[in-house]
Structure formats: structure tokens, C-alpha cells
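Section 3.1: Structural characterization of target chains.
Under the original work plan, the team committed to producing a structural model for every single-chain target entering the pipeline before any wet-lab resources were allocated. The record below documents one such target. The sequence was received from the expression subgroup and is listed exactly as submitted; it comprises 122 residues.
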Amino acid sequence: MRGSAEGRPAERGAGSILALAVLAGTVLLTTLIVSILGLLAVGRSVANAADAAALAAADTASGAIAGYPCAAADAAATLNETAVTHCTVTGLIASVSVRRRVHGIDISASARAGPPSGDPGG
């Protein structure tokens, strides 16, 4: 009986420390997961911006919209909070790359747009 009485005081508060450790781990893991999911959403947004910029450039190259193809791509990218890093137009095919910096991480995407390959105009 005397040995068990001496062991009790040393164990007091151990459950509180364990509960705090579990809580801290849960908060850390939740923060990490939310940050990663946020970056994935921004990645999808950047891919959509690349698509829009390529479509704008291709529409301009085809004459459907007045102006210069890469300027149209740049305007579309700016509206989607990205920057064009590369723009080429070959015939009616436009290839555009865009980039966005989020929390010090560069997220980039590329897209091509134009008429289907079987179309005599392309």
C-alpha cells in the first residue's frame, strides 16, 4: 500500500499534459490540411486562368475579337489575377503559360487553344 501511495503524486497532471499535446497536434494538422487545400484551389484557379487566356488569344488570332492575341491573353490573365509568362501564336493556335505567386510559392499552368486539328483553317 505504501508503494502505490508514493507513485500517485508523480502521475498527477499527466492527463492534462497529454490532452494539451493531443489538442496542439490536432490544431497543427488542421492548419496544415487547410493550407494545402487552399493551395489546391488556387492551382485550379490558375489552370482556369490559363484556359481563359489561351481562348482569348485564339479568338483574337482568328479575328473573332479585334486586337493582338498576346495582349488579349494578358488582359484575360490579369482579370484572373495571374501574369502571362509565355505566349505564342502559330497560325490560329495559341499557347499561353500563366503564373501566380501565393505565400511565396509560384503556381503556374499552361494551355493551348485553337480550332480542331481536322479544321482546314487550322
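The CA atoms of residues 3 and 9 lie 11 Å apart.
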